[in-house]
Specification:
Blueprint lengths: L8 H11 L11 E3 L12 E3 L7 H14 L16 E6 L5 H16 L3 E6 L2 H22 L3 E5 L5 H9 L3 E7 H7 L7 H7 L10 H7 L3 E5 L7 H8 L6 E5 L7 E6 L1 H6 L5 E5 L2 E3 L8 E7 L7 E10 L2 E9 L5 H4 L11 E5 L4 E4 L4 E3 L2 E3 L4 H24 L6 E6 L6 E3 L5 E3 L1 H17 L6 H7 L7 E4 L1 E2 L5 E2 L14 H8 L13 E5 L11 E7 L8 H6 L15 H4 L4 H4 L1 E5 L4 H14 L9 E3 L4 E2 L11 H10 L1 E7 L3 H15 L6 E6 L21 E6 L12 H9 L3 H10 L2 H4 L1 H4 L1 H22 L1 E9 L11 E2 L3 E3 L7 E3 L3 H16 L3 E6 L17 E5 L8 E5 L11 H17 L4 E5 L3 H7 L7
Parallel strand pairs: 3-8, 3-9, 4-6, 4-7, 5-6, 7-8, 10-27, 10-28, 11-18, 19-25, 19-26, 22-25, 26-27, 39-40
Antiparallel strand pairs: 1-2, 12-13, 13-14, 15-16, 16-17, 20-21, 23-24, 29-34, 30-33, 31-32, 35-36, 37-38, 38-39
């Protein structure tokens, strides 16, 4: 499969933020440097970037205009850096930073003809990832720009690539990592590589390679510049004689002129990265040594009380062995362990699904994810591996239906833990691999059913041995090794550590490739990521130098399906992005400890994550919420017989009335935004000091004012307001023309001020009046089709977060939404459970809809009252749109008008419809007060 790249607004904004800084720069032109200027015998010349000819005041004005457009602080003068200016682009990890600067190269080439770029990266890992990105995006950008980028990784031993970079036309890119940069580009350095760059080379036409690079006047792109500090590095960068510098990072340490910012919070809120879920583990010191207890999960069934899946130690013929059992309230661990004194008094008193907790009669409580005292490091690692596999399968079954391959990533400290070598070089599976295969087989055996469905077939087709693979550095004998770590860092510089994992990036996403679980040395933490990594687990013997932020960053990208299409808001809809894209981190400590440390590391870099981005993965999940006996009560059956019929509507409205109402609303409510521009004024100081060397120091602080255009702006664009309004509001041209002719002249004059805004608002107002008129004359008729009873249980995998175990609901659990409305839903469910006149009720599924001219409407609650308790017998209730919720739109109000008429007429008056924020108010509106 191939990645299917989309043109996304936020990435385009980042590209334009850079490109618009150079407005006024002459267009594409090549400039050949001849032998008289640089090299005595360099007859063929060098194709260099055209000089940046904009004066400093114009350049600064452009920067400030871009900053004002993006709501960024305005610069006082162009920031110092290599070249004429240094621009910052800040983008959160996983949002396509590399894609953005590649596209920026194309755009700078298209607008201004610049074609020579040098990308400096902090490590081999990132260098290899950047090279892969150039390859993957080549066809995508070819479609947009009709040309390809030629890129290469700098190697002082292959100067012919540098020669081609300098001589050839087209967009040329050299990628160099900091380690090669620091050893190679140090003038006067003793290394062989440094001598090569600064000496005249016979194989390079008796030229100095550094002079050829300088002659190109390259544009510098620094990827993660915060990792490239140091005066020596800055000096070496100046040695390239760059035109200007572009800095790309999620966390800039040294600030220059910002031209685009996409923060971690904004990226998350715009659904551009995954939501993080943490499964933490905590050792609890219960009184008494040597007691092992692990609460793996709590199971919930509509037919049985909650059960706890507990692991403990039991005596047997072969000694003490650990066993996993599914237990309920009243089960005694002392008896089940065959009299192990460590468990005396450990009889289960309560199982609390919502809290994810089991409590015993002796007062001790065990939280999901807790491990009692007396466990070894290897036992904790086994638990983490097990939890990773279980989390993987839970997600995989759901994502399989979307065509999304699920991957899990294990980081280990020592390659020997996964792969061992015998005396004769034979390869053996290491400890981690053996544990994984044991736990994987156990999980599959538990997960498989008799169902002959595609996912079950897929699960059966892959063996434990084939589904995991290791990616490590390789020594000269072909053996996997830990790889070299640069001094003071944590990232391997061995290219072989990245070849396989990068080469397999697309193949890993295919269902035809059995590998689903990846093991890698803990040094491999940056430069590689895969959008379909959904679980990350670190298996470590002790503290790791690698930060939690690096761990999480490997899996933040939104996933892709088998066609390479990203599962984002455009594909799924905004509401489902974080339902599908959830990164689970299997942590080595408790959820709270991990989350607090992750937040601290990110805040230290000047970033604040939204609190709701990180969630506790140990909360209990409910997999089935089947219908219960309440569904079969006579009262609810009678209600459901009425509700399950499907309807269509018909309506007639008076066109003249629509014209009258539309004209009235447009004249009353129409407004358009006037065009404005910013004027900045600054004059030279009355007295100049000789020490004021910077141009900005010669001028006084500027004054700014905003000017509103009072006269229409002429445009070469021709508009057809009648046609556009007719199409947008679904009217005839005759009706659209009548509305425009009927509005006041001063109202229509706004069209010339801002045509697009005027037409968009007019369409919205007309559609609202049309929907209201249609609703007033609407009638419904049955189609002869019915909703199936299964509509209530189609969603099998719901998360146990805000939930009530109900008594009168037609399913055992009521699931609530977030925010104030979710709290109101739970409160109403509690009131319905306790109401004497309520026989049964249902939180209606979203698949149940009533057609209306304003769009399909999904009511929220269906309530069946006890017989003989008053009239009407049934109530369809709505609690959305009250305190704490977003205000209802006009169209939503129209939907409710239609719903009220629909239920009254379709049921002969036995069903009432009411919207209120409490049960008491709902009963009053439904005419049920006499039931008291």
């Amino acid at each position: 499969m191939k990645f299917n790249f989309k043109i996304q607004d936020y990435q385009t904004d980042a590209v334009n933020g850079v490109a618009e800084v150079f407005l006024g720069q002459p267009g594409p032109a090549s400039d050949r440097v001849g032998p008289d200027r640089f090299f005595e015998d360099f007859a063929d010349g060098v194709l260099k970037n055209q000089e940046l000819v904009l004066p400093d005041p114009v350049l600064l004005d452009n920067i400030r205009r871009v900053q004002a457009k993006g709501g960024l602080p305005l610069s006082g003068k162009p920031a110092e850096g290599p070249g004429r200016c240094s621009l910052d682009v800040e983008m959160e990890t996983g949002t396509g930073k590399t894609y953005v600067y590649i596209k920026t190269m194309y755009e700078l080439n298209r607008r201004y003809g610049w074609s020579k770029f040098i990308v400096v990266v902090p490590s081999v890992a990132i260098r290899e990832g950047v090279k892969k990105s150039f390859e993957m995006t080549q066809a995508h950008f070819m479609e947009q720009y009709g040309k390809r980028i030629r890129c290469f990784a700098y190697d002082s031993g292959c100067l012919n690539r540098l020669d081609a970079f300098a001589r050839q036309a087209g967009i040329q890119v050299m990628i160099i990592n900091m380690q090669a940069f620091n050893t190679t580009m140090k003038e006067g350095g003793r290394s062989k590589a440094a001598r090569i760059v600064y000496e005249e080379r016979d194989e390079f036409g008796s030229r100095r390679p550094i002079d050829v690079i300088r002659a190109c006047r390259p544009i510098l792109i620094l990827d993660e510049p915060q990792k490239m500090g140091g005066e020596a590095t800055k000096k070496a960068l100046l040695g390239f004689d760059p035109l200007f510098c572009l800095n790309y990072s999620a966390t800039h340490k040294e600030r220059h002129d910002p031209v685009y910012v996409l923060s971690a919070a904004e990226a998350y809120n715009r659904k551009l990265v995954k939501r993080i879920e943490v499964k933490g583990f905590q050792i609890r010191n219960f009184a008494g040594a040597g007691r092992y207890l692990y609460l793996e999960r709590i199971r919930i069934s509509p037919k049985h009380p909650p059960k706890a899946r507990l692991e403990f130690e039991a005596a047997g013929p072969e000694g003490i062995r650990r066993k996993m059992r599914i237990l309920g309230v009243g089960d005694d661990l002392y008896a089940l362990s065959n009299g192990n004194e460590a468990y005396r008094g450990y009889r289960i008193a309560t199982i609390e699904p919502a809290a994810g907790r089991v409590c015993f009669t002796n007062g001790a409580c065990l939280q999901k994810g807790d491990v009692s005292d007396g466990v070894t490091e290897e036992e904790l690692q086994r638990i983490r591996i097990r939890e990773t596999i279980l989390s993987h399968m839970e997600k995989e079954e759901k994502l399989f239906e979307l065509g999304v391959k699920t991957l899990s990533l294990f980081f280990i400290d020592e390659v020997a833990g996964y792969r061992e070598y015998g005396k004769n070089g034979e390869v053996r599976t290491g400890k981690y691999g053996r544990i994984f295969e044991e736990e994987y087989r156990r999980a599959v055996e538990e997960y498989l059913t008799e169902e002959d469905v595609p996912y079950q077939k897929y699960l059966r087709s892959i063996s434990a041995e084939a589904t995991h693979k290791g990616y490590f550095s390789v020594d000269k004998k072909g053996r996997a090794v830990n790889g070299g770590i640069r001094k003071g860092g944590d990232v391997s510089e061995d290219v072989s550590a990245y070849d396989l994992i990068l080469k397999d990036k697309e193949r890993l996403l295919s269902f035809e490739e059995p590998t689903r679980f990846l093991f890698s040395h803990s040094a491999l933490r940056e430069g590689w990521d895969n959008p379909n990594v959904f679980q990350i687990c670190t298996l470590k013997h002790g503290n790791s130098a690698v930060t939690k932020r690096q761990e999480v960053g490997r899996g933040l990208r939104l996933c892709v399906n088998q066609d390479g299409v990203r599962m984002d808001a455009q594909t799924l809809g905004a509401d489902r992005v974080h339902e599908v894209n959830r990164l689970t981190v299997i942590a080595g400590e408790s959820y709270r400890t991990f989350a607090a440390e992750l937040q601290k590391q990110i805040q230290d870099a000047g970033v604040r994550l939204p609190d709701h981005m990180i969630q506790d993965g140990n909360q209990t999940a409910v997999f089935y919420n089947e219908r219960n006996g309440n569904f079969q009560t006579p009262e609810f059956c009678s209600l459901w017989r009425l509700l399950r019929r499907k309807y269509v509507y018909t309506a007639n409205f008076d066109s003249e009335e629509l014209i009258r109402r539309s004209v009235e609303q447009i004249d009353r409510d129409m407004s358009v935004a006037r065009r404005q521009y910013l004027v900045a004024r600054s004059e030279q100081r009355a007295r100049l000091e000789e020490s004021e060397e910077e141009a900005a120091g010669f001028f006084a602080e500027e004054e700014t004012r905003i000017v509103t255009l009072t006269a229409p702006v002429s445009s070469s664009v021709s508009y057809d307001p009648i046609g556009k309004i007719a199409k947008g509001a679904m009217l005839t041209r005759k009706t659209a023309a009548a509305i425009l002719q009927g509005i006041a002249p001063e109202t229509f004059a706004m069209f010339r001020e801002n045509p697009e805004s005027f037409m968009g608002k007019a369409i919205r107002m007309i559609r609202e009046q049309k929907a209201l008129l249609t609703a007033e004359g609407i009638s419904y008729r049955q189609t002869g089709e019915f909703y199936e009873d299964s509509i209530f249980t189609e969603e099998k995998r719901l998360e146990f977060r805000r939930v009530l175990q109900a008594r009168k609901h037609i399913q055992d659990y009521v699931f609530a939404e977030g925010g104030a409305h979710g709290g109101r839903q739970l409160e109403l469910a509690r009131e319905l459970d306790g109401a004497a006149d309520v026989r049964a009720y249902a939180k209606l599924p979203k698949g149940f809809v009533i057609p209306t001219p304003a769009g399909d409407y999904s009511p929220e609650w269906a309530i069946a009252f006890c017989e003989g308790k008053g009239f009407p017998a049934y109530l369809i209730a709505e609690t959305r749109g009250f305190a704490g919720d977003a205000p209802l739109s006009f169209m939503e109000r129209v939907k409710r008008l239609c719903a009220e008429k629909f239920f009254r007429e379709s049921s002969g008056g036995t069903i009432a419809y009411a919207a209120a924020d409490s049960y008491r108010e709902l009963r009053r509106k439904a005419g049920r007060e006499e039931a008291d």
